[in-house]
Structure formats: C-alpha cells, structure tokens
Amino acid sequence: STTEGKSYSANITKELGLNISTTSESWEFRQLNSTSPLIWNARDRIMNEYAEGANTSIFLRITPWGLDEFGNPNWYCNTTTAHEWSCVILPEYEDEFRTYLDELTKRYAGKMPKIQFGNEWTGSHFVGDEYEYVKYANWLYNFTKNNSPDTIVVLGSITSNPMVYMTHCILNETNPNYL
Asked: Among the residues of 3-47, which ranges form H helices?
C-alpha cells in the first residue's frame, strides 16, 4: 500500500470512530527463504505508524499464503496443498514457522489486542485438515500467551457454505416442496 493509501485509510478509520482494524500477516513477506533473516520493516510501519496515525489498534490475522504473486507455491508450502489463501507447512520448515510466530508475538506484544491464525478454516481459506489447523493455532496461542499475555487469541470462523447446505437439507427435509 502507498503512503497516500495508508494516510487515506488512517483518516477514514479516525472519521468513522473505529478503534480496531484487521490486517493479514503472511510469513512469505517476512522471510524470503529458509535461510534468510526475518524482515519486519513493512509490518513495523503498519503496527506503529498506521495504528498511531489512525488512533486504532490492530487485530492481526496470521495467514501463511500458499502462492506467491506469480502463482508459484511459497518455499515453506507442501506443493500439493499450496493455495492462494493458505497451505500446509512442510514438516522440515515447522521450526522456522514457530520461530516466526515467536518473534512476531514478541515484537508486537502490547500492540495487538487480538490475533488469529487463518480465517475460515472449514472452507477454501485453509487447505489443511482440522489437525493441522489446530496445531498451527495452538502454536500461535502458546507463543502469544508467553509473549503478549493480554492479547486475545481468536479462533477462525466456520465458513458459511456448510451452514447453507445444512439449512437447505433441514428445510428440504421439513418441507419437501422447499425447492
């Protein structure tokens, strides 16, 4: 986002009286490959300058995106699960992912009232299974509570699609003429 765009967003946020903004954070933007250091400059600007300028706090959503801007799987992803919104992290990079979560929650302790791993974990937003989702969410929870104990860890929601299908089945079962 440009300086002009951030300034515009900060002004609108103030004008609307919003006191919390949600933003996604992806590991791919902090670490270019498994041997590179974590790079925080862009996230620092959002967590510090934008939040202060908008007089708002940040609800941070951790999303290990599966594909880069060219549509290639990110270096830490299982290529069979890499998807635009997420991926299953290869076991050989799980330690690096935990290091990233640890450093992130230390770096922004006290600056994020809420944090979340992923989003709609039952739909297309998370491509792993429920065990992988819970594993990653638990890692985030443990690091957050160790490093930023006042931050609330929010679980991702259930996507509406299964609910729509369930509602359709219930309505169809109770009223065969529903459709």
From this structure: 3-16, 41-44
